[in-house]
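User: I'm putting together notes for a lab meeting next week and I want to include a structural view of one of the chains we've been expressing. I don't have a solved structure, so I'd like a prediction I can at least talk through. The sequence is below, exactly as it appears in our construct file.
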Amino acid sequence: MNSFIFRMPVNVYFDEHSVSKHLAEAMKGTGRNIMIAYGGGSVKKNGSLAEVRAILESEGKDITEFSGIMPNPTYRKVKEGTELAKKNHIDFILALGGGSVIDCCKVISAQAMTDEDLWKMEYEEGRMPSSFIPTGAIVTAFGTGAEMNSGAVITNEEKKMKSSLRGAPYSFAILDPLYTMTMPMRQVISGSFDSLSHCMESFMGLPEGDNLTDDINKACQRNIIRNIRATLLNPDDVKARSELMWAAAMAENGILILGKDNAFQAHMLEHQLGAYTDCNHGEGLAVIHPVLYRHMLSSSVEKFADLAVNVWDISPEGKSREELAEAFISALSAFIKEIGLPSSFREMGIAADTDYKTIADSTIIVEGSSRKLSHEELLTILKECI
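Assistant: Thanks for the context. Below is the predicted structure for the 386-residue chain, given as structure tokens.
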């Protein structure tokens, strides 16, 4: 295991009805001017926005709403939120939504505290922001685990890049599984697969060998697989939703990458696919993962064999390590079909004339996995996904 420094600054309130129980407490000392940020109209329809507003207004807060944050949030939307935050002298930003809303607010929090362009600062000058408007999150849709880290995935439409920016770490995150019960099932499953992908990508990072980080990781993978199936059998199973919600947070709060190198090649490839197609993130990952893993098979036999036995319950009896590794990829592919996720870009409705070469050539190459892929091989992978 590599050396590391670990810090977890987020206070997490995990409970049914946790907004009514804990929001007022969490907001103590946050200043008067609060910006509530959200996406579409679901938080109005399910009553969560009204509940949050009522609690904040009873605490004497002045509310500014920032709505319309889209899936795959854009840098243009970040700038819109930044102007609103500056205009209204916002003291605290409260994200009410899923990963897209939460990511967008992280970057607004940083951009509102500087006159410099954040994208230029981070990507051209290699400097990270250090001043933020304080932020909190109320999670209404799980999958990304965005509430427990400071990274944000933003689409820069002008540069045709969907990539990570560093923003504010959240002061607190409120996770109420009841808030997720109105999520469309497509979003539940694709978001949960994103969580599984986070786990698998973290697991693939070097170094190889037994370690506590990977042992925790395999437990998370088993939990996600089991509770996706339970949710499909009974969409009203609050316990299964609770497990998936916490697994999403665990997959991205840093615990599963302690002592590991970055191996998020599937994510990097899907991000660029999303920059050019605005596709569903979890569905894109579901298509890419099995194909990418077949390309990594020869260099990842031990890792894949471990997952076959200890996550997918494939008996090792009478099988070579290579056969177990292949069985893992087959099990993953079968699971993707079982839970109703697509197996090709065609099923996702991605246009046939998509410029896959440009997507591959602009994808960040990750070096921390058992095998470093080239841009040429990434193009081959994309073509095999069609």
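A couple of points you could mention at the meeting. The longest helix spans residues 212-233. The chain has two domains: 11-180, 185-385.

User: Perfect, that's what I needed.
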